[in-house]
Amino acid sequence: MPQTLSASDMVTPGSLSPPPTEPTDGEQAGQPLLDGAPSSASLETLIQHLVPTADYYPEKAYIFTFLLSSRLFIEPRELLARVCHLCIEQQQLDKPVLDKARVRKFGPKLLQLLAEWTETFPRDFQEESTIGHLKDVVGRIAPCDEAYRKRMHQLLQALHQKLAALRQGPEGLVGADKPISYRTKPPASIHRELLGVCSDPYTLAQQLTHVELERLRHIGPEEFVQAFVNKDPLASTKPCFSDKTSNLEAYVKWFNRLCYLVATEICMPAKKKQRAQVIEFFIDVARECFNIGNFNSLMAIISGMNMSPVSRLKKTWAKVRTAKFFILEHQMDPTGNFCNYRTALRGAVHRSLTAHSSREKIVIPFFSLLIKDIYFLNEGCANRLPNGHVNFELYLASYESESPENQTEKERWKALRSSILGKT
């Protein structure tokens, strides 16, 4: 770890760091480590653990996990300012004469950290002040090697391209997520046009999957954290940030829109034979979504067919061959916390990991259930410990890493498995 750390801030570091000194009362002596990172520590210590030096670089898992979870306690722009300040202070980059040998060892590590940060969380750099911090700290090391300035230019170019692409996401969705509603039944020609445009269930399932993937790619991992942020009782009186979950919310609205679309298309035809034909068409589409691994569209289609305007059409359903529909309903049955679905999802994930084609790699989970799982995982663990430390174990580790060792841990693990996997 950096030489400027005081004993009260010292934690056991990763593999590139020298041995730690003895902790004082400010930190927990002998605290367990998780992949080279502290399981709990003060926010300042965790920030220090992120800062590279000439001889130290944080582990990749720690970088991602801390940058993701830190926004619960500190705004990203403030975190970047503190990281840059620590780099300048520890490497003495504010001195008239730099130690070029040390800077040449430190420079690539700093640029690597900034590259990982901008690549994974580009939205953290939307404000001009954050770009200013990057230019300032890299400008201080640039005199030691002009390659640093060139690398910074490339990094900023890639960042601007990412931000431009992300800005197109929400704008393209404006007005597209309004629920379908009609004051009067539309002409039957609209229904015939739908079947004329896409009468092949596999083709429609593919197109729905493209829509799903397009919307998913705009959701940053930080939105999942920000969606469930609660005011930290040990922090300031104001929340850390404003609402920044527009892409996540738009994706949830897409699910609702698809439900309404299915129900509307089924109800539009005047004759029950035609309505039955549309139901069977959507059953086939749902089955193809299941085969592709698109569980979100699958559940939206099933939900649309189970809406009361559709489910009450008894005479129409009497003309439907429902065997395939019942199989799909069984797969998405909510009983046992969606146990059947979770089994199918694990199978799709396994297929994805061993896939040889891009089609076999697709796995789109039932998104609302994923959000629910994340919510309860977050609610089940405290963000801060009674001593004020950030409970970093909540974000980095799990009982998958090490088996429960005592009865309390075993009961907690059993409860978590029951909640997540629907098992007792």
UniProtKB/TrEMBL annotation:
Q: What InterPro entries would the database entry show?
A: Ras-like_GEF, Ras-like_Gua-exchang_fac_N, Ras_GEF_dom_sf, RASGEF_cat_dom, RASGEF_cat_dom_sf
UniProt domain Ras-GEF: residue ranges: 200-424
Q: Which CDD domains match?
A: RasGEF (cd00155), REM (cd06224)
Query: Could you mention a single GO BP entry for this protein?
Result: Ras protein signal transduction
Q: Which UniProt keywords apply?
A: Guanine-nucleotide releasing factor
Task: List, in alphabetical order, the Gene Ontology terms for molecular function in this entry.
Answer: guanyl-nucleotide exchange factor activity
Name the Gene3D superfamilies on file.
Ras guanine-nucleotide exchange factors catalytic domain, Son of sevenless (SoS) protein Chain: S domain 1
One GO cellular-component annotation of the UniProt record comes to: plasma membrane
N-terminal Ras-GEF domain: residues covered: 34-164
Q: Where is this region: Disordered?
A: 1-37
**Record protein name field:** RasGEF domain family member 1C
UniProt organism field: Pan troglodytes (Chimpanzee)
The lineage, from the top, is:
Eukaryota, Metazoa, Chordata, Craniata, Vertebrata
